[in-house]
Amino acid sequence: MKREKEKTQEIAVPDFVGRLIRRLQSKGYEAYVVGGAVRDRCLNHPVSDWDVATSAPPRRIRAVFKNIRSFSLKHETVTLVEEGRHYEVSSFRGGKGLGKAIQEDLAHRDFTINAMAYDATEREIMDPFGGTRDISRKLVKAVGRPGDRFREDPLRLIRAVRIATELGFKIEDRTSRVIAQMQGKGSGMNLSRSSLPENPLEDWICSASSGFFKSSFLNSWRGTEGSKTPIISTRFTGISWKRWIRWSLIR
Q1: Which of 41, 74, 175, 245 is the most buried (most CB within 10 A)?
Q2: Is the pTM of this model over 0.90?
């Protein structure tokens, strides 16, 4: 995969995030700022969430930051707590489980505008999928094949429209067609490109009591179809699926 770099965008990283990155690097691991923080900085928006992706596996993340208060809601992510703020440190993601490189991690993120990483050491944005270009074009576009991305996480179907609504962007045509095709398989919901509800997030949460999103959510909750092994911590078994969807959407 071609590694594109943008040297024109230097990101002011908070001191605590910089220390996280340097500590991981001192232990021999790669570490980058990723996700919405890079996107929001490119948009000149304030950053509310700072996330770091690293080559360190989850057990090593916990060991490296054992002196910092933390918790884990997802196997591959450790959330560090500093002065009441949360900072997620996640192992590189891959096609099946953990990834081996930042490029592989970015290839499995949802949309091009979220598939950028900031190298705080080299002061460069890594943008292999044209996220900065799509920001300038005001497009929400799936990374690679839209169907693959949505099958990895069906909640991305809703997230696409939430992000487009929040930023005033358009959903890229191929991505939009796949959303329409997938939500049309029994969902009973109308995600028409030409007519979005005034408050799509609330409308969809309320209307998602049957069909594609509920079944996808329940399959994700229970694990692989037909399996008895849950992939969600048992501490969440008392949370309704609607609340889980709401929680996922604000990530």
Answers
A1: 175
A2: no
